[in-house]
Design brief:
- There is one protein chain.
- Helix content is 52%, strand content 6%.
- By secondary structure, the chain is α+β, with helices and mostly antiparallel strands.
- The chain has one domain.
- The chain has a four-stranded antiparallel beta sheet with strand order 1-3-4-2.
- Helix 2 runs antiparallel to helix 3, helix 5 runs antiparallel to helix 8 and helix 6 packs across helix 8.
- 26% of the residues are buried.
Length: 242
Amino acid sequence: MITPQYNVNLELFEGPLDLLLYLIKKNDMDIHDIRISQITAEYLGYIDIMKQINLDIASEFLVMAATLMQIKAHMLLPRKTSESSEEEIDPQADLIAKLVEYQKYKGVSQILSGKEVHEQGVYYKDYPVFTDDEFVLDANVFDLIDTFRKIITELPKETKEVLYEEIPVERKIREILDFLDSQESPEGKKFANFEDILLRETTRMGIIVAFLALLELIRLKQIVARQATIFGKIRIYRIDGN
C-alpha cells in the first residue's frame, strides 16, 4: 500500500504512556493488574496502523513496544527460587509505577486544560461553546485512530485502490473545511461526524489522506474532536476565525 508523502508528528498529540492508559481504560482493566499479553498485542496493533499511514512516530513509542515484549517474555520465564540472594527486578511493577505517576500528572493536566477551554469560551467568540447535553468530551488521537482502523478494515473489497494516486494533504484540508462550513446547525455550530468525513472518500488512499488532514487541522486548532461518552461516536467541530 502506498502512503502519502506527508508526516504528522504523533508526539504533538500523545505519547506511549497515553496509549497504554487508553488501552487499559478501553479494556476495563485495573492499572495494577494489567493483562500484559492482551495489552501488548493491542499496542503493537496501533503501532502497525500508525506506520501504515506514515504517521511520524516518536522513538519512545518503539521503546515502549520493546519494553512490553520484554515484560511479556519475562512473565513466561520460570520464577527464581527464594534462595536466590539477588533481588529480582520486576519490569512490570516498574511500568505500573510509571503509569500510576503519569495518570496523576494527566489528571492535573486535564483540569488545567478544562480551565483553558473555559477561558477560550469566555474570551474568544469563535470557539464553540458546548452545553451539558452535547458532545462535551475531548476525543484523543487514539479514539480517532481506533475509528479510522475500523473503517479501513471494514472497507468492502470493491473499494478502489489507485496505486499511483497522489492526493495533497493541503488540498484535503481545504475540502474538509469547506465541507464543515456547509454543515452549520441551528445553534450556529459547524460540525460533522468523524466517520462521515472519512467515508466521503471513494478510495482507500483518500480515506488515509483525509485522516492525516484531520490530525493536522486539530494540531492547527482549526477543528476540535468531541465525544458524548467515553469511546463513543466522534464529532468534528469547526473553529471559526482561522
